[in-house]
Amino acid sequence: MRSRFVLVIALAGLFIAAVFAWSGLFNVAASSGHFKITAWFLHYVMRQSVKTHSIGIVPPDLDDPVLIRRGGAHFETACVYCHGSPLADSSPVARQMTPAPPRLRHTLDKWKSAELFWIVKHGIKYTGMPAWPAQDRDDEVWAVVAFLEVLSTMSAASYREIAFGTESERVAVPTDVPQSKGCARCHGQDGEGDDIEAFPRLDIQSERYLGAALQSYVQGRRQSGIMEAAVSGLTPADIEALARYYRAPAEYGQAKHQSAGDATLLKGQKIAREGIAEKQIPACNSCHKSEGNMPNFRPDFPRLAGQNKRFLIDQLHLFAAEKDRGGTAFAGLMAPFAHKLDNEDIDAVAAWYASLAASSN
Ligand code: HEC
Ligand code: HEC
Ligand code: HEC
């Protein structure tokens, strides 16, 4: 008898809820905001959900200046519109969202690093807080977290340095492409990279490779939340202009021969020139012809000589991981052997290519 009574009450409740929804009386206007109690309840649900879902996530070393610079520069591209920064308020349009995106400086202390990681990677449903565009790039999400960890105590001057680079790098690039100003914040005025090697050099690459690499980000074939945000809105004509602007002064710059002094460099030199026979790893130089005044096997392959060591290491780890790094139409050529490189091989071969000075004559 009692259970039948409960059932009737429950059905009546559902019916009333359905009629209320059908009537259109519920006010979905963002302009009216939430009742205090609703806002509190929704935030409580969010906090508990983030807490539970971030159990077991272990942060890497977040004091790394390279991570902080990468994360901060991306924050300027993709987060300031909603959350503001030490230099700028959020957009008045974003402030009309319900819930309004918080000024993060004031709220960050409440969160552990693993929780911030979860929020930035997955976003928050029903709030407008977006998920990370490249779900396989946890390394990039950690870069943003490394930056958030220092944001609450950051002065406007240090924010400027982290988001825009040093003074010399902050000048707009003279192309007709509106976004090119953003490129210089990370890659330097002429694509020479930045002091702490947080970003790759562009000025050693051929126009063909630069164009193909940019296309692969635009089309989502190369996973990087940082670059996907930076290239959004570029037209094919913009890409051509940028590739022409940043290309190496001569199509194939000559790498100065460096005498391989220490053991690591010697090991790297050997991998580059001969590969590792017992692991069936081919000579890298057979495709990335980086020594002497030689063209690459194809002009749309990337040059490695003179590239930042940190970038080479990070990219080799992406190729070596099981997840697909993606890239241009030829990216599959790295897959058969990249996972056979161990950490020592990667460090050695990256050190070798980074030690080769890439010059144009
Ligand atoms: C389109 C607007 C929008 C963009 C872009 C955006 N966010 Fe958010 N974000 C929000 C909103 C809205 C919330 C509030 C969610 C809530 O209160 O439940 C939020 C919440 C957060 C929180 C939790 C803050 C707190 O204390 O509740 C963090 C951390 C955060 N965002 C970081 C970022 C980062 C980092 C980026 C850039 C990669 C970013 N957001 C981009 C709208 C945005
Ligand atoms: C917020 C910093 C940032 C901005 C802004 C940015 N980049 Fe990048 N760029 C990166 C990072 C980080 C990578 C490495 C991404 C990866 O892991 O695939 C990269 C990679 C690249 C590559 C591939 C390099 C290679 O050797 O494979 C090209 C080309 C490039 N960027 C061009 C540009 C251009 C052109 C712009 C302006 C429209 C731009 N970037 C804006 C950070 C940035
Ligand atoms: C069969 C040809 C081939 C061989 C051999 C080869 N690569 Fe590659 N490599 C490529 C191609 C093609 C790409 C461009 C991937 C893309 O489309 O983004 C690439 C990309 C790279 C990149 C990323 C560069 C950038 O600017 O983004 C690194 C680092 C790299 N290779 C290192 C190596 C190393 C180290 C070896 C030797 C162990 C090696 N490669 C051997 C063809 C090759």
From TrEMBL:
On the tree of life, the source organism's domain of life is: Bacteria
Q: Which residues form the Cytochrome c domain?
A: 66-152, 155-250, 263-357
| Record keyword Kinase present | no
Q: Which Pfam families match?
A: Cytochrom_C, Cytochrome_CBB3
The alphabetical list of record keywords is: Electron transport, Heme, Iron, Metal-binding, Transport
Give a GO molecular function annotation for the protein.
electron transfer activity
Q: Determine if Iron is one of this entry's keywords.
A: yes
**By what name is this protein known?**
Cytochrome c553
Q: Which organism is it from?
A: Phyllobacterium bourgognense
For this protein's source organism, the top of the classification is: Bacteria, Pseudomonadati, Pseudomonadota, Alphaproteobacteria, Hyphomicrobiales
